[in-house]
């Protein structure tokens, strides 16, 4: 009788264990996707930053970053798949030699930004193909006053 009870417990525990392993793998993949998307966004922000002075901080308090998840609409993903972000695609690099150094530097900056945005879109498309939906992550700074 005791052997029968142990067998039943093992039969019940096996699917539960498999499910827990699957959930752990999904959570791990979700964390890596989140960090990849946030890293791409940070890199894009750095590339697009201008030499403008930061706004003065009015509220002094503990600042920390908070991650907000938003679901990307299916239509936006389909648009990204149909028309990937390649604004400088038709411009031949050989023609750059004819132009000034300033224009070549501008082209290099714009190309870096465009490549970064394309990688960000590819990360969202990869997530969409894997899960059937895509989640975008955004970091915001929160002070103690804002969170209440």
**Counting H and I runs of at least 4 residues, what is the number of helices?**
4
Q: Tell me the domain tally.
A: 1
SSE arrangement, N to C: HEHHEH
Q: Could you give a short account of the major beta sheet?
A: 2 strands, antiparallel
Q: Tell the overall outline.
A: elongated
Distance between the termini: 58 Å
Share of residues in helices: 55-70%
- Uncertain regions: pLDDT < 50 for 5+ in a row? 50-56
Q: How much β-strand is present in the residues? A: 5-15%
The overall strand count is 2
Radius of gyration: 24 Å
- Strands in their spatial order, largest beta sheet: 1-2
Rounded mean pLDDT score: 77
SS content category: alpha+beta
Features:
4 helices; alpha+beta; two-stranded antiparallel ribbon
Describe the 3D structure.
By secondary structure, the chain is α+β, with helices and mostly antiparallel strands. The chain has one domain (2-51, 61-147). The protein has 4 helices and 2 strands; from the N terminus they run αβααβα. The protein has helices at 2-48, 74-82, 101-131, 144-147; strands at 63-72, 134-143. Helix 1 packs antiparallel against helix 3 (101-131). The radius of gyration is 24 Å and the shape is elongated. The chain starts with a helix and ends with a helix.
């Amino acid at each position: 009788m005791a052997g029968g009870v142990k067998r039943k417990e093992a039969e019940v525990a096996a699917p539960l264990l498999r499910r827990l392993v699957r959930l752990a793998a999904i959570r791990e993949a979700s964390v890596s996707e989140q960090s990849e998307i946030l890293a791409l966004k940070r890199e894009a922000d750095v590339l697009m930053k201008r030499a403008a002075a930061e706004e003065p901080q009015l509220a002094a308090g503990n600042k920390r970053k908070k991650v907000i998840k938003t679901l990307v609409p299916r239509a936006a993903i389909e648009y990204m798949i149909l028309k990937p972000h390649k604004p400088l695609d038709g411009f031949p690099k050989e023609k750059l030699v004819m132009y000034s150094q300033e224009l070549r530097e501008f082209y290099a900056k714009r190309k870096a930004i465009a490549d970064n945005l394309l990688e960000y879109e590819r990360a969202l498309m990869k997530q969409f193909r894997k899960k059937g939906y895509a989640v975008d992550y955004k970091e915001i700074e929160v002070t103690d006053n804002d969170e209440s």
